[in-house]
Amino acid sequence: MYSKIEDHPEPQAFQSHSHEASISRRQIARSNSQLIGVSPKGASVPNVIFNTFKSFVGSGILGLPYGFLKGGWALSLISFPITCLIAGYAMVDLIHCKDVLPRGKADTFPDIGRVAFGPFGYWLVQVSLLAYQIGCCMSYYLFITQNLEILVPSMSQQIWVIIFLSVFTMMSFIRSLKTTGILSMMANVCVLGGIVLLLIGVLLTGKKPQPIIPFSWSSFPVFFGIVLFAFEGIGLVIPIHNSMEKKKYYVPALVTTLAFVCILYSGFGFTCYLFLGAGTPEMITAAIAPQYSWIRITTQALLIFAITISYHLLAHPVYEAFDELPCIRKSNTSQTRHWLWSTLIRFCLIAVSAIPSVTPLRKHFPDLIGIVGGTFGAALAFIIPGLLHLKICWRECGVLRKILDILLLSFAIPASIVVTIFTVISLINNIKKAH
After folding, report:
1. Can you give the pLDDT at residue 392?
2. What's the angle, vertex CA 29, arms to CA 416 and CA 125, rounded to 5?
């Protein structure tokens, strides 16, 4: 199959930018290497497990208790491991695509899309990645400003939006991620510390006399969208694989990490829902009883710090992708002018990510992440890997693998549509109730 792809010449317009594209790919690869802390000698198995875990654990876990409320505890506990299994299979599909291509032909996720479907495939993956990362940044911005409003009631969320517009713009001046390695590690420690404290706070608050439902089919799509958002690390699968010294151990490392993430996520979501029942709030930090306010304040402070750092790390590839657009590169003849244009673009992107925080969406964090997960999260985690694998690896795959890929797409495409529609309806209904 690959020989057929290779025989088809690329459009002349795409070939004319081949040099710029190769430069852009090298810069993106270098940025991703800095993001995951790759050593020049190659990452060991423990490092790969840590980096993979780091790429998946983020703010998505904070929406899971509300997700369990929407899906029911039994249905959620059954479906979460299945979703992890399907996601893991799709990631292995992606790695298989990379392995069957000549070395250096597909060093990034968008490159694999280009090999399979030409410029359309490249931009399909690139736009999906950028949209997903911007959507994640929106949820990060919303979480930070909403929790700061709770911490400091004298200042409204809109004021915090303006303050962090300045904070994130100043952080965007950091053009390299080399200096943020320690901050990235601190952010992950703070996320885990915040989750542990949050869990302690919920346990100390005590079990409320609220019913818990085992199955909730009517609102289950909302849970599924939140779960899809939780797989934030799909865009770093290829960079982490590239960084590995002994690549044959990548799949076992991935399976180990996904198993741990599955246990962590399921345990956290189920425990919180078990204790809070029908009173599980959309923003889980609001569930801690007033007498344990020190736990809530410490938890919120840790998570706000961690997600502020994570915002910059997640937004950085988006900044670089816009910097490398031909219209931006060619319109700036001097380095100073390019820097000014780059800063303006970053400011505009940050402003876009602040939009949900100043609209009715600001009180509905789980619904927002559900919509992001149901659209671009599902596309990146399930649909696109399945399509790429069928196209590139058709000859190399046996009948069973082809059937599994077709089943993956048969499940993922309708699920993405249903989840998106139901989550949007849920969001509209919640906004109406709030008014």
Report:
1. 93
2. 25
